[in-house]
Amino acid sequence: MSDKVREKTPRWLVGFKEKPETLVRLFCFPYAGGSAATFRAWPDAFPSHIQVLPVQLPGRGERLAEPGFKQLPDMIQTLGPALLPHFNKPFVFFGHSMGGLISLELTRWLRRTGNPMPVQLFISGRRAPQLPSEELPSFDLPEPEFIERLRELNGTPPEVLDHPELMQLMIPLLRADFSVCETYQYHAEPPLNCPITVFGGLGDVEVPREKLDPWREQTTRSFSLHMLPGNHFFLHTAQPEIIRLITEKLAKPQSL
Fold first, then answer.
1. 3-state secondary structure string, 56-114?
2. From CA 21, how far away is CA 48, in angstroms rounded?
3. Which of 97, 103, 179, 255 is catalytic?
């Protein structure tokens, strides 16, 4: 790996190290307001042949001083070339909510540019991209209304919502991430030639089963949908089951 690639690695991939035992790399993309820390427990929970690589987007963690992306195409145009050197082994994407959109559009970018493709996509808590949003945009609401929207979504801890100084740090990032999701425009392309596994929360009123099942239209390969206990942030409460299911999928030789 060149010195130039090594310099870029810490920005995007937390704790990246080459591991000879790796058979597949699992790139993880967070939900709006989330960070690489969302997946802090994952590397130790998977078998050694699966290398977990949480992706650190701008505006969070050690990249807090960098402005977050506000448009998904801009993010993909930067993210794709940055991660490309690490697609030199079989790889898969996992993304929850906003991360699901990133996973899809990064895969479509790889196909358009003639680069290696993930052997599988794992999408979590995100409606199928071809379905229109039924919600009005909230990223540009006045601050009191925006904070109330965050309370409704139940993804920001109350102790953060009630801490004005913390919220002043978080609000620019959250607005940027919400803008990424809420300004997303789906453009039809042929289905992908890789399996898609989708996870949903049984108590997720934002993204119920009927908004998840149409993901099957995005692949010519196998499709599976797993509904797990929890609300929109079942990623945390059902984490052991998600990890078990991913591990099972990646244990099959045809997945690699």
1. CCCCCHHHCCCCCCCCHHHHHHHHHHHHHHHCCCCEEEEEECHHHHHHHHHHHHHHHCC
2. 7
3. 97
Q: What is the CATH number of the domain that holds 241?
A: 3.40.50.1820
70-100 tens-digit pLDDT: 999 999 999 999 999 999 999 999 999 999 9
- The reply to whether the predicted model has a pTM over 0.85 is yes
Q: Residue-wise over 178-187: b if at least 16 C-beta within 10 A, else e?
A: bbbbeebeee
- Residue 66: both structure tokens together: 């960098």
118 belongs to a structural domain = yes
Residue 151 belongs to a domain: no
By residue range, what is the domain housing residue 57? 3-133+188-255
Q: Is 141 helix (H, G, I), strand (E, B) or coil?
A: coil
Residue 38 lies in a domain: yes
In a domain, 168, yes or no: no
Q: Sign of the CA dihedral 140, 141, 143, 146? A: negative
Domain count, the chain: 1
pLDDT in tens, 153-181: 766 666 666 677 777 778 888 889 999 99
- Annotation marks residue 97 as catalytic: yes
